[in-house]
RNA sequence: AGGCACGUAGCUCAGUGGGAGAGCACCACCUUGACACGGUGGGGGUCCGGGGUUCAAAUCCCCGCGUGCCUACCA
């Protein structure tokens, strides 16, 4: 028997523990009887804490995997965490800093050990939070991107790509974070517009009196200028090309060159060129064989090439330089200007374009295959609108900078021979240079971008490069569920790597869900203080309510707006289920569902109706889940559970439970309610298990492994369901009159019905008690069609009946007149539109005949209803 | 600069060619033996503006206006 109120806390823990003990979540690699179904988790950062995005993402995955598991699949949900190079290193460095230490104090090896210790200590926090959410991952298989197996995969991939010329090492301008002291890929830079300035600076000619004025948003880079460029077509500067100008302050002479890249319209049409600190300038320097001068160190501090500014931070330098230029008369103009600025996605520090030697993946050839796979439908991107974004990025893909100057991560398997300069890239640590046999080898200190290893996730987690039974069975995975924000970061790279190394796409479907925002649609951030903490929500309302809220809002627009209040709303839904459970249980005590065999003949109208409705709900839910329409699935089940089952069927069952048909009603109550729990289980696993366990005659030891409901044609009774529908309409009609004319619920009514057909009249005669009970009616009179209408009555017109409620002595007749007036006005407006449409010759000629027919039918119905209402109004007059 | 979305009831959003919908909020009534975390009934909308296609447009097309987001080597 269930407690008075539903209390999630103990119940959630109890069941999750049992599910683990029973190993329900474990997918058996040797089970060949069931078809496989697999999902790999987007691995959260090992240092992470569960946020709303994780909660949404993992709830959706759990819904799919639980659904498929129940539906007879060998379902594998592969879990794990990501080592998150920069993020994790930052966290541990911060921790050290609190003790007054830097990573350099420890040295590389000791620092890495420290990170591992940190991981051991805090790494399972987010895993436990996922368990709290109810995630049914196969925890026996949990992986970490730095595990030995996965690290081997990384090495294999790196070496293979290098040997095929798809990885190369080169000097290039990269996005440098002066705070993280590392290069970043293009994707790891966030672009923002900042309020800045456009400075106009005078560069005097080396010989003679002329000058060239350049415009720049970053005056400090002037110190590294190696030329000034103008457009060859620009007549203003035609005579100056080839001459020298002198850089103010540092008095270095640089040439004026002509390059078509220069936009004549912008600024003065003359560009200062700083090859070491700007990508365009770098490329221009290659075209003109220019000198390259690096003016900052890796912390963004000016170096010896900056002359008097050496040792200053880049922004301090800008200020001082501006002052000096001003004083010495070189600064001509300074106007406010919106400047695009790149920021480090980890620490928001302004990125410095910086010339350095880095490792790159040649992305184009890999991208081509990844594009093809989607074009050919081998992988579907859902919703489809994202396909275009995917193509757009893939077509314009640039080489991927994969080296990072940090310590935590997969160290690049490359060695440099100190003797002959040979580069050795190998899976095994080399002992001697293959070229000069020297053993004086130095290993590359850079590590790989975290996304490099994440890109291998769908197959590295399954044991690749070994040929495992898991790979054979579960690769490609069925679906990847993730946020659209990492479409390029992760999805695109898994596609490239999966196709390259497995010769098959990593997943058949990619479902991209929205980002979670706050009530006002704002991105959640600590600084805004608008963070909704999943753990807090689960503490307050339970994991089920929280999960249901997430699935209900999953596909609404592009954002998921979550608020405490909405979660509370679904908490009420959980409680509703609980209470329905209490009702069902108390009424079927001692009843064995297996003692009854149901058939069309034995079932009452209400039983037949709800069973038919159940079939509809099953069909709709399944198709919603198959198409990842999580919100639809949630809506359908919310509606069916609350309004169809609780509001109508439970109420209808009450009178039935006192009749001799009671066993059938008990059976139906039990069957439908059990089905509801099973249908809902993937979304709200805990409460459904608790209630389900209390129902008699459950086929399995847990709802987790019971069969997901399927449509049952044996339990489909459309004719009876239709009749039940008519009776429901009559009840609604009476209630409506009662409500609108303010007849108190305590007043028992006498009503008179006039039915369209004998058949329905018979049904109403047999099941009049439904109307009496649910509409609080004392007596039901039946009059034949064509018989005179009773006087002083309120009228409700349904499809199959006219419902008369005598009002004399019951309420104010005028109120009923008002009510009818309103309905008449509404109908007349509608009718007018229809008549107009149907008198339009063009419509009759050109519209689809079925449409015309339907419109005529609607018009007839409206007219009939209107006629009855007008008549009723007349009768009220007396 | 280009791209992708979005603009429907007070709020959050469904609906995507033929009778304007849901949840929450609101109003009225109701302590009926599953549930007041409840029940019953109800009010509320120039479907952003303008033009076009069509017999018919919230729905398709174009142009505005507004709002998000993504991409980009605009000094």
Description of the molecule:
- The structure is a single chain.
- The protein is α/β, with parallel strands linked by helices and 878 residues long.
- Helix content is 44%, strand content 18%.
- It has 28 helices and 29 strands.
- The strands form 10 sheets. It has a 4-stranded antiparallel beta sheet with strand order 6-5-14-16.
- Helix 2 links the parallel strand 1 (36-40) and strand 2 (74-78).
- The longest helix is centred in the C-terminal third of the chain and has 28 residues, at 849-876.
- The protein is elongated.
- The mean pLDDT is 89.
- The structure holds one RNA strand of 75 nucleotides.
Question: Can you describe this structure in just a few lines?
Answer:
With 878 residues, the chain is α/β, with parallel strands linked by helices. 44% of the residues lie in helices and 18% in strands.
Please state the overall shape, judged from the principal axes of the Cα atoms: elongated
The rounded distance between the terminal residues' Cα atoms is: 57 Å
Rg, alpha carbons: 37 Å
Largest β sheet strand count, sense and barrel closure: 4 strands, antiparallel
How many extended strands? 29
- The portion of residues forming beta strands comes to 15-25%
Overall SS class: alpha/beta
Number of helices: 28
Helix content: 40-55%
Unreliable runs: none
Averaged pLDDT: 89
Strand numbers in spatial order across the main sheet: 6-5-14-16
């Amino acid at each position: 028997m269930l407690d008075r109120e539903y209390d999630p806390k103990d119940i959630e823990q109890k069941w999750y523990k049992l599910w683990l003990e029973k190993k329900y979540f474990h997918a058996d690699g040797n089970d060949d009887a069931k078809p496989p179904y697999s999902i790999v988790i987007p691995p959260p950062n090992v240092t992470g804490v569960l946020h709303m995005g994780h909660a949404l993402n993992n709830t959706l995955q759990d819904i799919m995997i639980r659904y498929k598991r129940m539906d007879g699949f060998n379902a594998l949900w592969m879990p794990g965490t990501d080592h998150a190079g920069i993020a994790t290193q930052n966290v541990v460095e911060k921790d050290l800093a609190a003790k007054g230490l830097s990573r350099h104090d420890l040295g590389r090896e000791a620092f890495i050990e420290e990170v591992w210790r940190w991981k051991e200590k805090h790494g399972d926090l987010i895993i436990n939070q996922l368990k709290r959410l109810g995630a049914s991952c196969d925890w026996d298989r949990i992986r970490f991107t730095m595990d030995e197996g996965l690290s081997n995969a990384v090495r294999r991939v790196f070496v293979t790509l290098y040997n095929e010329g798809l990885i190369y090492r080169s000097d290039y301008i990269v996005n440098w974070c002066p705070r993280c002291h590392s290069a970043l890929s293009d994707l790891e830079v966030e672009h923002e517009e900042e309020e800045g300035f456009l400075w106009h600076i005078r560069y005097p000619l080396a010989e003679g009196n002329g000058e060239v004025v350049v415009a720049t948003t970053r005056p400090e880079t002037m110190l590294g200028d190696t030329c000034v460029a103008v457009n060859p077509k620009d007549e203003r500067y035609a005579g100056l090309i080839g001459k020298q100008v002198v850089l103010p302050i540092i008095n270095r002479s640089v040439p004026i060159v002509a390059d078509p890249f220069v936009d004549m319209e912008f600024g003065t049409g003359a560009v200062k060129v700083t090859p070491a600190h700007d990508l365009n300038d770098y490329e221009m320097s290659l075209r003109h064989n220019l000198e390259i001068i690096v003016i900052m160190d890796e912390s963004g501090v000016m170096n010896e090439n900056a002359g008097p500014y050496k040792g200053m931070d880049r922004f301090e330098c800008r200020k001082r330089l501006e002052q000096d230029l001003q004083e010495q008369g070189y600064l001509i103009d300074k106007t406010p200007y919106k400047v695009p600025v790149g920021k480090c996605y980890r620490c928001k520090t302004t990125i410095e374009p910086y010339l350095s030697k880095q490792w790159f993946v040649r992305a184009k050839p890999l991208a081509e295959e990844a594009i093809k796979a989607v074009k050919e439908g081998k992988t579907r991107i859902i919703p489809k609108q994202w396909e275009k974004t995917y193509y757009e990025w893939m077509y314009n893909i640039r080489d991927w900078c994969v080296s990072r100057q940090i310590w935590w991560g997969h160290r690049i398997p490359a060695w440099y021979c100190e003797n002959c300069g040979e580069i050795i890239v190998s899976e095994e640590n080399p002992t001697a240079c293959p070229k000069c046999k020297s053993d004086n080898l130095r290993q590359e200190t850079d590590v790989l971008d975290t996304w490099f290893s994440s890109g291998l996730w769908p197959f590295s987690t399954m044991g690749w490069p070994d040929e495992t039974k898991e790979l054979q069975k579960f690769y490609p995975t069925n679906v990847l569920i993730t946020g659209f924000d990492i479409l390029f970061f992760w999805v695109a790279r898994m596609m490239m790597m999966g196709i390259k190394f497995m010769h098959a796409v990593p997943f058949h479907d990619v479902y991209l869900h929205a980002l979670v925002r706050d009530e006002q649609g704002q991105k959640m951030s600590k600084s805004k203080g608008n963070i909704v903490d999943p753990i807090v929500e689960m503490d307050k309302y339970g994991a089920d309510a929280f999960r249901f809220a997430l699935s209900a809002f999953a596909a609404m627009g592009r954002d998921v707006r979550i608020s405490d209040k909405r979660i509370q709303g679904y908490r009420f839904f959980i409680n509703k289920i609980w209470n329905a459970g209490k009702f069902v249980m108390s009424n079927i005590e001692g009843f064995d569902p297996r003692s009854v065999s149901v058939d069309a003949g034995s079932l009452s109208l209400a039983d037949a109706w709800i069973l038919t409705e159940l079939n509809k709900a099953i069909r709709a839910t399944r198709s919603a889940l198959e198409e990842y329409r999580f919100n639809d699935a949630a809506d359908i089940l919310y509606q069916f559970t609350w309004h169809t089952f609780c509001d109508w069927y439970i109420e209808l069952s009450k009178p039935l439970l006192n009749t001799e048909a009671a066993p059938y009603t008990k059976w139906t109550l039990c069957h439908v309610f059990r089905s509801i729990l099973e249908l809902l289980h993937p979304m709200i696993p805990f409460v459904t298990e608790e209630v389900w366990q209390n129902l008699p005659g459950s086929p399995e030891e847990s709802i987790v492994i019971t069969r997901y409901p399927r449509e049952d044609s044996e339990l489909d009774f459309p004719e009876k369901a239709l009749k039940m529908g008519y009776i429901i309409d009559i009840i609604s009609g009476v209630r409506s009159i009662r409500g609108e004319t303010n007849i108190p619920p305590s007043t028992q009514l006498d009503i008179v019905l006039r039915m369209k057909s004998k058949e329905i009249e018979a049904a109403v005669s047999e099941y009049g008690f439904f109307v009496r009970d649910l509409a609080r009616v004392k007596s039901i009179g039946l009059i034949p069609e064509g018989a005179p209408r009773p006087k002083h009555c309120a009228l409700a017109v349904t499809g199959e009946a006219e419902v008369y409620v005598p009002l004399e002595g019951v309420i104010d007749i005028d109120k009923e007149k008002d009510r009818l007036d309103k309905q008449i006005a509404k109908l007349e407006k509608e009718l007018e539109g229809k008549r107009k449409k149907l008198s339009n010759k063009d419509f009759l000629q050109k519209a689809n005949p079925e449409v015309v027919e339907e419109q005529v039918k609607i018009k007839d119905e409206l007219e009939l209803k209107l006629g009855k209402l007008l008549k009723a109004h007349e009768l009220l007059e007396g």
